[in-house]
């Protein structure tokens, strides 16, 4: 028996990841992951393929999705974990998010067209190639024009927070996501709290609202972080009585994110979210 290794946050080619769901499961296996949640942005379309491969690899697959939310004008990510994927509440919300992403892509494209990126919508759609469309697909299409050097520059100049392509549209608030999640028997987890670059006061206020909305967990470990950051997030989990989750947020084998399973263990002081899953 291998040591249990939980990775509850990663992306496949069904959103902005590089690997197909089956390839992701194979890599997870070789990385020593024993329980994986595939958490594509706003879609569960990778689940059937992932389920088949999880069975072949002997990995416990947990249902997952990373929802884009809005909190006082800020784009916040909430993971839904371990829900019934056939439940109408999850089906309805993912369908709505798909439509929102399609509409958002048209708005982003019209803004970028004005800056000279002609035909960018079709180019970004080609990059998405059937995946749910997101800003990384625009970044890749922009690189092909030769006007931007790499993905980091595309975000820094055009797509990142506060830039012209940072279209947040009508993302749902916490309530919409936590309600759909709990209706489907799952748990809502605040993703990568350190990524929002908020002041401590703002971060605590946001976590407070999330908890108030019915949020049940927080990512205490997200990708590569220092022991100090982990300790800090563990304190927040305990302060707000939230269950602890951990995930690599893996997107690509040679990306700047951690590899699958390459994350530090949760501190003893927190209650892991999977303790609620065992009977
Ligand atoms: P979207 O889901 O369309 O809102 O796009 C957000 C995604 O873009 C995130 O999940 C990341 O994968 C990616 N992303 C955000 N900021 C950056 C950045 N500075 N460089 C590269 N990728 C980024
Ligand atoms: Mn992403
Ligand atoms: Mn995220
Ligand atoms: Mn993610």
Give an overview of the whole structure.
The protein is α/β, with parallel strands linked by helices and 279 residues long. It contains 9 helices and 8 strands. It has helices spanning 21-30, 47-57, 88-114, 120-128, 135-144, 151-159, 174-183, 200-212, 227-239, and strands at 6-7, 35-37, 60-62, 64-71, 74-81, 187-190, 217-222, 243-247. The strands form 2 sheets. It has a 5-stranded mixed sheet. Helix 1 packs parallel to helix 2 (47-57) and helix 5 packs across helix 6. The longest helix is centred in the middle third of the chain and has 27 residues, at 88-114. The two termini are 20 Å apart. The model has no long low-confidence stretch (mean pLDDT 96). Bound molecules: adenosine monophosphate and manganese (II) ion (MN) (3 copies). One manganese (II) ion (MN) is lined by residues 9, 11, 66, 249.
- Stretches where pLDDT is under 50 for at least 5 consecutive residues are none
Write down the oligomeric state: single chain
The bound ligands are: adenosine monophosphate, manganese (II) ion
- Give the structural class: alpha/beta
In total, how many beta strands?
A: 8
Distance between the termini: 20 Å
Number of helices: 9
Q: Helix fraction?
A: 40-55%
> Strand portion, in percent?
5-15%
Shape: globular
Strand order of the largest sheet: 4-5-6-7-8
* Helix-strand topology string: EHEHEEEHHHHHEHEHE
Rounded radius of gyration (Å): 18 Å
What is the residue-mean pLDDT, rounded to a whole number? 96
């Amino acid at each position: 028996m291998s040591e249990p290794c939980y990775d509850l946050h990663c992306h496949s080619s069904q959103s902005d990841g590089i690997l197909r769901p089956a390839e992701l499961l194979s890599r997870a296996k070789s990385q020593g992951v024993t329980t994986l949640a595939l958490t594509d942005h706003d879609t569960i379309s990778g689940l059937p393929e992932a389920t088949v491969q999880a069975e072949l690899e002997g990995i416990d697959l947990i249902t997952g999705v990373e929802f884009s939310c809005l909190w006082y004008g800020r784009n916040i990510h909430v993971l839904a974990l371990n829900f019934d994927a056939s439940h109408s509440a999850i089906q309805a919300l993912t369908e709505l998010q798909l439509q929102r992403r399609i509409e958002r892509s048209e708005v982003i494209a019209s803004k970028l067209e004005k800056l000279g990126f002609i035909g960018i919508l079709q180019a970004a759609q080609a990059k998405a190639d059937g995946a749910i469309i997101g800003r990384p697909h625009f970044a890749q299409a922009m690189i092909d024009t030769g006007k931007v050097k790499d993905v980091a520059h595309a975000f820094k100049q055009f797509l990142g927070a506060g830039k012209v392509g940072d279209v947040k549209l009508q993302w749902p608030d916490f309530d919409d996501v936590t309600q759909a999640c709990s209706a489907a028997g799952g748990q809502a987890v605040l993703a990568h709290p350190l990524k929002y670059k908020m002041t401590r006061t703002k971060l605590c206020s946001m976590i407070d609202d999330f908890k108030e909305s019915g949020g049940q967990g927080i990512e205490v470990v997200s990708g590569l972080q220092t022991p100090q950051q982990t300790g800090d997030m563990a304190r927040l989990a305990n302060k707000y009585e939230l269950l602890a989750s951990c995930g690599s947020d893996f997107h690509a084998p040679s990306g700047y994110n951690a590899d699958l399973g390459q994350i530090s263990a949760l501190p003893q002081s927190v209650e892991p979210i999977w303790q609620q899953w065992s009977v």
